[in-house]
């Protein structure tokens, strides 16, 4: 069964063609991403991003079909992100999907964006050992999700204020680094001393599994204000020390979640999965030793926003014949995962 997946929740226009197989595996035939450049605005402006989506959506669909060597008549199902995300951006993708469904008679499935980040793992790892914990870290979310099966999950920890990715972007702006800030912070941190500044580890000892990074962001702001102007070495030390604080909190919470839920696997997803320090720490803490578990991270083309993860998330419903009515699908910027 061939699924056309459409993603437009933030600033990447993603379209993919994925074949869902009866054995639970997936073949990504095409996965095209049209990215946007936000350096001039210093971040994503929803209305501007939506205009770029509107310009890119149909050419990106055409490119995906062409790369997959398909016509629209070869597609069996259309899947689209309906939330969470930015309302103007979500509307572009959903309206395109609804237009295709209405014009062709193809069935349609609305997908939760965060569930799709989890599902992206199954492209390369279709047979994960459960129970598992999914750690989703992005610009808008930092959450821990317990999983008893591919479609059986429950929220165990979430963001109370700033998500990790948002904190990275804001600290990067304080250090006058370009957008997006996550990769820039990581690059600068390579030449810094992670132990140079004792930034707080927010909520690391709290009994729950929630996250809060607003206080850490404020601590960085005060350090820069009180010690500026910073030398290049000091800027690198700030980046390294800030990154170390975020990573330590995330890994500590993830380790607690694994222990509490007796997880055999931890799945890492979301754009901040690109952070090499986070991946390395997770592997060293959870992926080694006598009590090691499987640490599963999608490849770079799958852990950021993309259409393939939307198609894969829709796979089980598509194979079961459980579809939505295109006339009734609505976007929900605050759509909950569980």
UniProtKB/TrEMBL annotation:
Binding site for substrate: 136-140, 169, 182, 275
Record's keyword annotation contains Acyltransferase: yes
Record text on cofactor binding: Binds 1 Fe(2+) ion per subunit.
Keywords: Acyltransferase, Cytoplasm, Iron, Metal-binding, Transferase, tRNA processing
Entry superkingdom: Bacteria
EC number(s) given by UniProt: 2.3.1.234
Primary localization class, coarse: cytoplasm
One GO molecular-function entry: tRNA N(6)-L-threonylcarbamoyladenine synthase activity
GO terms under cellular component: cytoplasm
Reactions catalysed according to its record: L-threonylcarbamoyladenylate + adenosine(37) in tRNA = N(6)-L-threonylcarbamoyladenosine(37) in tRNA + AMP + H(+)
Pfam families: TsaD
Compartmental location: Cytoplasm
Function statement: Required for the formation of a threonylcarbamoyl group on adenosine at position 37 (t(6)A37) in tRNAs that read codons beginning with adenine. Is involved in the transfer of the threonylcarbamoyl moiety of threonylcarbamoyl-AMP (TC-AMP) to the N6 group of A37, together with TsaE and TsaB. TsaD likely plays a direct catalytic role in this reaction.
Family of the protein in this entry: Belongs to the KAE1 / TsaD family.
Protein name (Swiss-Prot/TrEMBL): tRNA N6-adenosine threonylcarbamoyltransferase
Organism, as annotated: Candidatus Kerfeldbacteria bacterium CG15_BIG_FIL_POST_REV_8_21_14_020_45_12
Gene name of the record: tsaD
């Amino acid at each position: 069964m061939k699924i056309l997946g459409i993603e437009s929740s933030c600033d990447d226009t993603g379209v993919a063609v994925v074949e869902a197989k009866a054995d639970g595996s997936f073949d990504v035939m095409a996965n095209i991403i049209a990215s946007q450049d936000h350096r001039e605005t210093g971040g994503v402006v929803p209305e501007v991003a939506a205009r770029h989506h509107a310009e890119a959506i149909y050419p990106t669909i055409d490119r995906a079909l062409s790369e997959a060597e398909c016509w629209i008549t070869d597609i069996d199902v259309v899947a689209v992100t309906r939330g969470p995300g930015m309302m103007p951006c979500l509307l572009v993708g959903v309206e395109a999907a609804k237009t295709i469904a209405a014009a062709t008679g193809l069935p349609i499935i609305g997908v939760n964006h965060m569930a799709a980040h989890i599902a992206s793992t199954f492209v390369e790892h279709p047979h994960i050992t459960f129970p598992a914990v999914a750690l989703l870290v992005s610009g808008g979310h930092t959450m821990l999700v317990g999983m008893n099966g591919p479609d059986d999950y429950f929220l165990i920890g979430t963001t109370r204020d700033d998500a990790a990715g948002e904190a990275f972007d804001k600290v990067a702006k304080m250090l006058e680094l370009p957008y997006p800030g996550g990769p820039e912070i990581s690059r600068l941190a390579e030449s810094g001393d992670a132990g140079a500044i004792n930034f707080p580890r927010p909520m690391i000892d709290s009994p729950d599994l929630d996250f809060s990074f607003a206080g850490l962001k404020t601590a960085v702001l005060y350090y820069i204000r009180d010690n500026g102007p910073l030398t290049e070495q000091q800027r690198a030390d700030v980046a390294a020390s800030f990154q170390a604080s975020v990573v330590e909190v995330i890994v500590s919470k993830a380790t607690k979640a694994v222990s509490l839920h007796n997880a055999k696997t931890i799945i890492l997803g979301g754009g901040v999965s690109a952070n090499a320090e986070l991946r390395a720490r997770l592997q060293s803490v959870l992926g080694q030793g006598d009590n090691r578990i499987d640490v599963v991270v999608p490849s770079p083309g799958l852990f950021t926003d993309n259409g393939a993860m939307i198609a894969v998330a829709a796979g089980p419903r598509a194979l079961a014949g459980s579809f939505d009515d295109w006339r009734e699908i609505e976007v929900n910027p605050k759509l909950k995962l569980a």
